[in-house]
Write a structure and sequence with these properties.
The protein has 404 residues and is mostly helical. Helix content is 48%, strand content 11%. The chain has helices at residues 59-82, 89-97, 105-118, 122-139, 151-164, 169-188, 218-225, 232-246, 252-255, 285-292, 317-341, 352-361, 367-374, 379-385, 392-402; strands spanning 3-9, 19-27, 30-40, 45-46, 51-52, 263-264, 267-271, 278-282. Residues 7-93 form the Arm DNA-binding domain.
Length: 404
C-alpha cells in the first residue's frame, strides 16, 4: 500500500488571515487532510523543514505537538500496511482518527465525490465538484462545520451565488440540493443533530423554477427531416437527433452507447446509463431507416451503432465520459446550423428531442404511458414535461366564454 503522511501548512487562510496546520495523508497520489486546530502566519512556516519557525511565540510547543501527532499517524500507517488493508486516503484517515463525528462539510463532500468517482457517475461528479467549489469560494476555508450551516449562512450563500457569480436560480437550487444531501448524511453519522436542520418548513425551501424549454412541433420536425443542403457532419447530427426523438427523446449518452447487439426482432433493448433500467422498445420505421444508414460501418454485433465511442477506451470511464461530452457539444453546435437552415427560431439541442416528443404527445397520451416512454422513475417529472398541456381543458373553457 503506497501511503505516507507529512505535516503541511494549508494555503487557504481563515477569516483572521491565519493559515491552518494539518497532517496530509496520501494514498496513490490522492490526499486528505486532518486539521490540527492550530493556525499561524504564512511567514512563520518553514517549508523546507516542515516545522514552525522560532519566530512564533509557541513554536517549541507546536513543533512538539506536530511531531507527536505525525509519529502516531505513521505508526498507524505501518499497522494498516501489516494488515494488508487496501483503503483510500479518506478510509485510512477514518481508521486512524475514528473521526466520523468530527468531519467537516468539505471532508464529507470529498467522500461524496470519491463515491461518485468509484461508481463511475462522472457527469454528476463533474457537476457536484463545481457546486462544492462555489461553497468553498464563499467560505474561503475548508474548515466549515455543519453547525455553522444554518439558515442565515445559506441565505448569505444564495445571495453571494447570484450576485458574485450570476448563477441562475436552477444552479443555485442544485447547490442547495447537494448541501441538503450532505447535511442529511451528516445527521445519519451523528455529526450534527437534527434539531439544527436548516431546510424545509419556514426555513430554507428548495424550489426549482419552471422549465421554459420548448419542444418542436410536427411541422418543424418535418422541416428538419426534409433538409437537403446539409454537410456530412450535419447529416450525422440530424440522424442522431431524429433517432433520439423517435425513441421518445432518448438521452444522447444512451443513444451513443447503442450496439448492434441491442437490436433484435425489430426491437431495441438497452440498459439506461442513468438508473440501470433495462428498456425494450419497438423500433419505429423512421428509426429503422436511420439504423440502415450505418449498416455498412458495422464490424461485428458488439460494435457501436454510431461512431463516437468506437475508438474510446471502454475500460477507462473518464475517457468514455469525455468522448460523450465532446460529442454532445459538437452535436449542439451543428444543431444551431440545422435550425437556421430549417427556419426554426426555437432553441435546438440534443435534449430538446425529449421536449419535442412531449410537445407532440400533448395531452393525447396518458401521463402514466408517457412516464413509461420517458423512462421516468417519478410521475412528477413526467408531469413537469407536460405542464403546457395538462391545463388544456381550462384553456378551452376560457375560450368558450371570451370568444364571442
Amino acid at each position: 500500500m503506497s501511503s505516507n503522511a507529512k505535516i503541511v501548512l494549508r494555503k487557504k487562510p481563515n477569516k483572521e488571515g491565519l493559515y491552518p496546520l494539518a497532517i496530509r495523508i496520501t494514498k496513490n497520489r490522492r490526499s486528505t487532510f486532518q486539521y490540527m486546530g492550530h493556525y499561524i502566519e504564512l511567514e512563520e512556516w518553514d517549508k523546507r523543514n516542515l516545522i514552525v519557525k522560532k519566530s512564533h511565540p509557541n513554536s517549541e510547543h507546536l513543533n512538539s505537538l506536530l511531531s507527536t501527532q505525525l509519529s502516531g499517524v505513521n505508526k498507524a500507517l505501518i499497522s494498516l500496511q501489516s494488515e494488508h488493508k487496501d483503503a483510500s486516503a479518506n478510509q485510512i484517515k477514518k481508521d486512524i482518527y475514528h473521526s466520523d463525528k468530527n468531519l467537516t462539510f468539505f471532508e464529507l463532500a470529498e467522500e461524496h465525490l470519491e463515491d461518485l468517482e468509484c461508481s463511475e457517475k462522472l457527469n454528476r461528479l463533474s457537476c457536484d465538484k463545481a457546486w462544492i467549489g462555489y461553497v468553498l469560494k464563499f467560505y474561503k476555508s475548508k474548515h466549515l462545520t455543519f453547525q455553522e450551516i444554518d439558515e442565515r449562512f445559506l441565505k448569505k450563500l444564495i445571495i453571494y451565488l447570484k450576485s458574485s457569480h450570476k448563477l441562475s436560480e436552477t444552479s443555485v437550487m442544485n447547490i442547495m440540493v447537494l448541501m441538503r444531501l450532505l447535511y442529511n448524511r451528516a445527521i445519519k453519522l451523528k455529526i450534527v443533530v437534527r434539531e439544527l436542520y436548516p431546510f424545509g418548513g419556514d426555513k430554507i425551501r428548495i424550489k426549482f423554477p419552471e422549465s421554459n424549454k420548448i419542444g418542436l412541433n410536427i411541422q418543424e420536425i418535418q422541416n428538419i427531416e426534409g433538409l437537403k443542403n446539409l454537410t456530412i457532419v450535419e447529416l450525422h447530427t440530424r440522424n442522431v437527433w431524429l433517432f433520439s426523438f423517435n425513441f421518445a427523446g432518448m438521452r444522447v449518452s444512451d443513444v451513443l452507447k447503442i450496439r448492434w447487439s441491442d437490436i433484435n426482432d425489430n426491437r431495441l433493448q438497452y440498459r439506461m446509463h442513468k438508473n440501470s433500467k433495462l428498456i425494450s422498445m419497438k423500433i419505429p420505421v423512421k428509426a429503422l431507416d436511420i439504423i440502415n444508414l450505418y449498416r455498412n460501418d458495422r464490424k461485428d454485433t458488439n460494435d457501436f451503432l454510431f461512431p463516437e465511442l468506437k475508438k474510446a477506451n471502454l475500460r477507462d470511464a473518464k475517457d468514455v465520459y469525455n468522448k460523450l461530452k465532446t460529442a454532445n457539444r459538437k452535436f449542439n453546435v451543428n444543431l444551431k446550423s440545422i435550425a437556421r437552415k430549417a427556419s426554426i427560431t426555437k432553441k435546438l439541442t440534443m435534449h430538446i428531442a425529449r421536449h419535442s416528443f412531449g410537445n407532440i404527445a400533448g395531452d393525447t397520451v396518458h401521463p402514466l404511458m408517457l412516464q413509461k416512454l420517458y423512462r421516468h422513475s417519478d410521475l412528477k417529472t413526467t408531469l413537469n414535461y407536460q405542464a403546457n398541456f395538462i391545463y388544456r381543458e381550462a384553456d378551452d373553457a376560457l375560450d368558450s366564454v371570451v370568444n364571442f
